[in-house]
Write a structure and sequence with these properties.
The chain is α+β, with helices and mostly antiparallel strands. The protein has two domains: 184 residues, GAF domain (Beta-Lactamase), CATH 3.30.450; 50 residues, Orthogonal Bundle (Arc Repressor Mutant, subunit A). The chain has ten helices and seven strands. Strand 4 and strand 5 form a beta hairpin. Helix 2 packs antiparallel against helix 7. The radius of gyration is 18 Å and the shape is globular. The termini are far apart.
C-alpha cells in the first residue's frame, strides 16, 4: 500500500471512529462526522461544509464541527464573500493564514466577523471531481499560522471523502453544462427517484435555502427590482441586523419584515 493510500485509509478510519450523535443521519450527519474528524486529524480548531451553486454562490451550510463554525460558514452566505466562495470560483484551495492583514484586504466584512469569533486563519478546499464542483470544505484555526504541506494533503483527502459521501448518498443529482453539481430540494421528489416528497436525510440546509430564495422573490415583487438586487438587500439587512440570512428570510415570508418600508 502506498503512503497516499495509507493516509487516506487513516482518515477514513477516523471518520468511522467518530462517535455518532442522535442527529448523525443521512448526508448531513455523515458530513458532520467528517468535520469533527478533520479537527482530530489536522491542526484545525473547527471545520464546516457549504454547498455551492454557480449561479447564486453558497446554497447553505450543510455540516460543521460545532455551532460556532456553523455560524462562520453562514457568514459567507450572508456577506457574499469569503474563502469558500473564492475557492469554489477558482476551483482551487484558498489558504489564508492571516485574516488580520491579507485576509482583511480580501474579505473586509468576513475577516472582521471571523476574527470576532476568535478565528485568525481559514483554509478552503473545493469539493470537486474533474470539472464538477459541489461545495467547499473549510478549516478554521484560532492561531494565524499556515498549514503544513502534509496537512494540506490530508485536507484535500478529506474534501474527497466529502465528495464520495455527497455522491453516494444522493445530495447531488446532476451536473450542469458548466460542470457544476446541482443540489435538489428533497421535497421535489427527484433526489432519489421517489415521488412522495420524503426526505433523503439531507437535513435543513435545502429547506433553509429554499426560504431564502422565496424571500428573494418576494422582495423582487415588493420593490420591482431584479433578483440580484433583492439578494443584495436581503444580505445587507441580515448583516446590519447581525442575524443569519435564513432567519431574516423567514421574517420576510411571514410579513414580519416588509422591504417596502422606507427604513429598510
Amino acid at each position: 500500500m502506498s503512503d497516499a493510500h495509507r493516509r487516506l485509509a487513516r482518515l477514513l478510519q477516523l471518520v468511522e471512529d467518530e462517535p455518532a450523535t442522535i442527529d448523525d443521519s443521512g448526508v448531513a450527519g455523515r458530513l458532520d462526522r467528517i468535520c469533527r474528524a478533520a479537527v482530530r486529524a489536522l491542526p484545525a480548531d473547527g471545520a464546516g461544509v457549504t454547498l455551492m451553486d454557480q449561479d447564486s454562490g453558497p446554497v447553505g451550510t450543510i455540516a460543521a464541527s460545532g455551532p460556532r463554525f456553523r455560524r462562520l460558514e453562514d457568514l459567507q452566505f450572508t456577506m457574499g464573500e469569503g474563502p469558500c466562495i473564492d475557492a469554489y470560483a477558482g476551483r482551487s484551495p484558498v489558504l489564508e493564514a492571516d485574516l488580520a492583514t491579507s485576509g482583511q484586504h480580501r474579505w473586509p466584512g468576513y475577516a472582521s466577523a471571523a476574527r470576532e469569533e476568535g478565528v485568525n486563519a481559514v483554509f478552503a478546499f473545493p469539493i470537486q471531481v474533474g470539472a464538477a464542483r459541489l461545495g467547499v470544505l473549510d478549516l478554521y484555526r484560532y492561531e494565524g499560522t499556515p498549514l503544513s504541506r502534509g496537512s494540506v494533503s490530508d485536507a484535500l483527502d478529506l474534501a474527497n471523502i466529502c465528495l464520495s459521501t455527497m455522491l453516494r448518498l444522493g445530495s447531488v443529482t446532476s451536473v450542469d453544462a458548466g460542470g457544476d453539481g446541482r443540489p435538489v430540494d428533497p421535497g421535489d421528489g427527484r433526489s432519489d427517484g421517489r415521488s412522495d416528497g420524503s426526505s433523503d436525510g439531507l437535513g435543513d440546509p435545502f429547506r433553509l435555502s429554499s426560504e431564502v430564495y422565496q424571500a428573494q422573490g418576494a422582495i423582487t415583487v415588493q420593490l420591482g427590482i431584479s433578483l440580484a438586487e433583492a439578494m443584495v438587500r436581503l444580505r445587507a439587512h441580515a448583516y446590519a441586523a447581525g442575524r443569519p440570512i435564513s432567519d431574516v428570510a423567514r421574517d420576510v415570508l411571514t410579513g414580519t419584515i416588509d422591504f417596502t418600508r422606507e427604513d429598510l
